[in-house]
Specification:
heterodimer; A: 276 residues; alpha/beta; 5-stranded parallel beta sheet; 7 strands; 43% helix; B: 313 residues; 5-stranded mixed beta sheet; 14 strands; 40% helix; 20% strand; globular
Chain lengths: 276, 313
């Protein structure tokens, strides 16, 4: 898929993040927007998946370890055709399939329930190991927040992935620098992220996570890396695409009100026109 | 019961995993650096490619098992009960229970019969913790025979299962004719004066106590409840109606385990005077298992004394 098409899809994903969180009057737009390009690339170019057959045994897997950014994942899935876009405004509503954090009990097409930080990467390791044990060649992708790296379980999982040489596993860190209480370097500094994963025997690639050329190159490099898992440290802009949310920690877990919704949608319409 | 054969249920666990491996080709076994103690080493020896050592990282192990199960494998995740249910509680809840994944947890070294290691390793809360998780099957086999049957039943069942095993050798109560079914209790001895509901090593204690009670003219009905969840309400209620008095006996806190489950059941369906035998809201301590079981009144004599006092007061 060419970059222009990916950018168009990513912009639609961003709109759905705003529509969903606005309708829910809750949710996490900031980290959903920062990762929108990664979600889009995974669901439109990278992963071997089929929305018509979401449980296909040999499909690639995706685990959203930073489960609170479900609005971004749901946006990508709806855009890709897993479920109707009309369902997006049901986000977080009673009885909705679009639970506040992803749940396989509710929504087909999800590979894992998540939300409690640190657990998704472990589950992804289990899936990658499952492929190895059964001589399957599918790949497993998991997306973590940079604040999530403060969870000890992330490093238990990283040690496991490195030790077991899970080269079918790609760990992507959405490094947008902000967590709910402030800049990650001030809350409990997980930097240097790349050197830490290197120490756990990962192949590490630093990229601009809002640039499709760089995402594509990193994914290719990950596929070509044998004998060790890959960690892509994706440097991103929290709130990307919505003028008043960009790089603002206040938009980690707050939904736009009606007025802010209008401004955000206008921002994204304008970006859509610029993409063409 | 001096000449009765004794086997630790952790040994039954390791041997069963090995013995069932051919029949269940999707079975894989995980451990957290305790394969000698949990006896999963018995499986590892024959099936090294299906054994995954996660190292000393029980939380990660539970979520790994969850991920493995989504690929069609049936993981048995093994460690001490303290770490399986305590340290990794939230991983069991959120990675395994909430998505209702087909993960089996084999938790060994439960209760005070861990012995000399002391309270830090004597888990007395696991049945309560695991019972709270929606959809989780929770079992506590009484002996070698039942442990083996429970493991097979867990493999045949689709969904999360927690099975509790012990460190100490315990009398073999059942023979191969014993019929095991998840969710079904068994009347081991009929009686009319008091119902004694037990699980784990307290089943043998209860049977021993029943002999002593009979000598005193007290007829005790002995019920084995291996599956604490889902609980066999009908069996317990029917017996409570018959005897009018119920005692529970378990190597667990009196809070939230078998005693708690039976109390909840009876309070709603058949309010009955009750007494809970177990560890009475305190931590354990170091000592040889037999001495601790005696001190905490969980051996045959201790159960006998407590039932007698309850029935005759």
């Amino acid at each position: 898929m060419n970059n222009k098409e990916l950018m168009q899809h990513a912009n639609e994903v961003r709109k759905m993040i705003i529509i969903g969180t606005h309708s829910a009057k809750a949710g996490h737009p900031g980290g959903s927007l920062s990762a929108a390009d990664i979600f889009t690339f995974l669901y439109f170019e990278e992963m071997n998946i089929d929305p018509a057959e979401p449980a296909k045994p040999d499909r690639d897997r995706f685990v959203l370890s930073k489960g609170h950014t479900a609005p971004g994942l749901y946006g990508a899935m709806a855009e890709r055709g897993y479920f109707p876009k009309e369902e997006i405004p049901t986000l977080r509503h009673t009885g909705a399939r679009l639970q506040g954090h992803p749940s396989i009990q509710y929504l087909p097409g999800l590979d894992m329930s998540s939300g409690s930080l640190g657990q998704g990467i472990s589950a992804a390791c289990g899936m990658a190991l499952g492929a190895k044990l059964q001589n399957k060649d599918y790949r497993v992708y998991t997306l973590l927040g940079d604040g999530e790296l403060e969870e000890g379980q992330v490093w238990e999982a990283a040690m496991f992935a490195g030790a077991k040489k899970l080269d079918n596993l790609v760990v992507i860190v959405d490094n947008n620098n902000l967590q709910i209480d402030g800049p990650i370097s001030e809350v409990n500094n997980p930097y240097p992220i790349d050197k830490k994963f290197e120490a756990f025997n990962f192949h590490v690639i630093n990229i601009n996570g809002n640039d499709f050329d760089e995402i594509r190159a990193a994914m290719k490099e990950a596929r070509e890396t044998k004998g060790m898992p890959t960690c892509i440290v994706a440097h991103t802009l929290k709130g990307k695409g919505v003028s008043f949310m960009e790089n603002q920690v206040a938009w980690h877990g707050v939904a736009p009100n009606d007025e802010q919704f209008e401004i955000a949608m206008k921002d994204l319409e304008r970006i859509g026109e610029e993409i063409g | 019961m001096a000449d009765v054969k004794k086997i630790a249920t952790r040994q039954s666990y390791g041997e069963s995993l090995r013995d069932l491996a051919e029949e269940y080709p999707n079975l894989v076994v995980l451990d957290a650096d305790l394969s000698n103690a949990t006896k999963t080493g018995t499986f590892k020896k024959v099936y090294p490619d299906r054994f995954i050592n996660c190292g000393i990282a029980e939380s990660n192990m539970m979520s790994i098992a969850a991920g493995l199960s989504t690929t069609g494998l049936i993981p048995f995740a093994s460690t001490f009960a303290m770490f399986a249910s305590g340290r990794a509680y939230e991983q069991v809840r959120n990675s395994i229970g909430y998505p209702h994944l087909n993960v089996k947890i084999g938790a060994t070294h439960a209760g005070i019969s861990v012995g000399e290691d002391g309270a830090s390793h004597q888990c007395l809360e696991d049945l309560a913790l695991m019972r709270m998780i929606p959809g989780m099957v929770v079992m506590c086999p009484a002996d070698d025979t039942e442990a083996r049957m429970a493991i097979r039943a867990a493999l045949d069942y689709v969904g999360p299962v927690y099975i509790r095993f012990g460190r100490a050798a315990v009398p073999v109560v059942f023979d191969e004719n014993y019929k095991f079914e998840i969710g079904k209790g068994a009347i081991l001895r009929e009686g009319t004066d008091v119902t004694l509901v037990a699980n784990g090593l307290c089943v043998a204690s209860a049977l021993e106590a029943a002999d002593k009670l009979a000598a005193d003219g007290i007829s005790a009905e002995i019920i084995n409840i291996c599956t604490i969840k889902p609980l066999d309400d009908d069996l317990i209620v029917a017996s409570a109606r018959k005897t009018g008095k119920v005692v529970t006996a378990e190597e667990h806190s009196i809070l939230g385990g078998l005693g708690g489950a039976v109390a909840e059941c009876l309070a709603e369906k058949c309010p009955t005077p009750m007494y809970r035998i177990g560890v009475r809201d305190r931590f354990g301590e170091s000592g040889p298992a037999a001495e601790l079981l005696h001190k905490y009144m969980l051996d045959g004599e201790g159960v006998y004394k407590q039932v007698k006092e309850f029935v005759t007061k």
